[in-house]
Amino acid sequence: IPSPDLGGSAAASRASGAGLPRTSRDLSAGSVIVEDGYLDQPYCVVHGGTWVCAITRNSASEGHLGEHVEVFLSSDLGITWSPGMRLEAPDAQTNAYTTLVQTAFGRIYVIYNMNLDNVTRLPDGQAITRDDELSSFVMRWSDDGGHTFSAERLLVPYRKTSIDMNNTWHGEYRIMWCVDQVKIRGNTTYHAFTKIGTYVQNPPEEMWFLSSPNLLHERDASAVEWVLLPDGDRGVQSPVLSQNWEEGHIVPLTSSPGFFAVCRTSGG
Question: How many Å apart are CA 144 and CA 136, to the nearest integer?
C-alpha cells in the first residue's frame, strides 16, 4: 500500500517521467506502508503530528485464514512508517475491515469485524470457506496517539432485524461487514455497513448505518451508545434495482440536514 508523498520533492518530480511534477494524487510518488498478500482499507486519522493508519492484512489472499488488523504510524507525513502492530493476538479469531474515529479529547477508536463466536461451519455442518464477515463488530481504543491500544475489547452492539433473523444461521450469528469511514455531524458519528442474508455475500443484502450520539465526548468507553439506522426492520434497499446493496458509504450534507448514501449493487 503506497502512501502519498505530500512533499512534492524535485527528485520525485524528475522520476515521474514526461517532465510533469508529481502530486499527492500520483500513487507512483508514494512511499510504501507495507507489502503483503492482501491489504485493504488503509484508513487513517491524524493525531498531532502522527498519522495513525489501520489496515486489514493477510499473507494469503482475501478471506483466508490469518486475516487480521494492524495499525501503522507515521510522524513524517507518510514518508516512513512504523512496523505494523496487531490489535489482536496472532491466535485470536479472524478480525478485519476497520474504520477509525478520533474523539474531541484525542482518543482513537478502531472499530472492526471479529468472529467472536468462532463460527466455522454452516448449519448443515459443512465447513465455511471464510469467516471475516461474521459474528460481531468490536472496538479497541488508544489514548496515546496510536502507540498502544486498550487491553479491553468492547462489543459494538446493534439490534437484529429481519435480514439477520432469516440469514443462513437463522439469526444465531450475524453476517456483515463495513468499508465506510466514520463521518461526523455536530456531536454525532455515522458510518455505513452491510447486513448479509446469505453466506458469504449473497442476496438479500441491505445497507444500514451505525450512529453514536456520545462517542466524541464520552470518556468511559463502556458508556458509548450506538443507534442502528434507519428505524424499522428494513435497511436501505430498492425493490426495483437489486437485492444486493453492499459496501455502503454515508455522507452528511453541508447545506441541509440530509444525508447522501451510496453503495454498489448487482443492478449497476
Answer: 26
DSSP annotation of 11 reads H
Average the pLDDT over 153-180 and give the result: 98
CB proximity list for 35: less than 8 A, separation 6 or greater:
1
* β-bridge partners, 177: 194
Q: Which residues, in sequence order, are CB contacts of 171 under 8 Å at separation 6+?
A: 160, 164, 165
Whole-model pTM?
0.89
CA quadruple 139, 142, 145, 147: dihedral sign: negative
Residue 7 has pLDDT above 60, yes or no: no
Q: CA neighbours within 13 Å on the CB side: how many for 119?
A: 27
| Grid cell listed for 195 | 447486513
Q: Give pLDDT, residue 152.
A: 98
Cα–Cα separations (whole angstroms), residue 29 to 14, 24, 126, 163, 190: 11, 7, 47, 44, 32
Confidence of residue 241 (pLDDT cuts 50, 70, 90): low
Render 21-42 in DSSP notation, one character per residue: PP-TT-GGGSEES---SEEEEE
Helix residue ranges, H only, 121-231:
162-165
Give the list of residues 6+ apart from residue 135 with CB closer than 8 angstroms, or none: 93, 113, 114, 115, 116, 117, 119, 173, 174
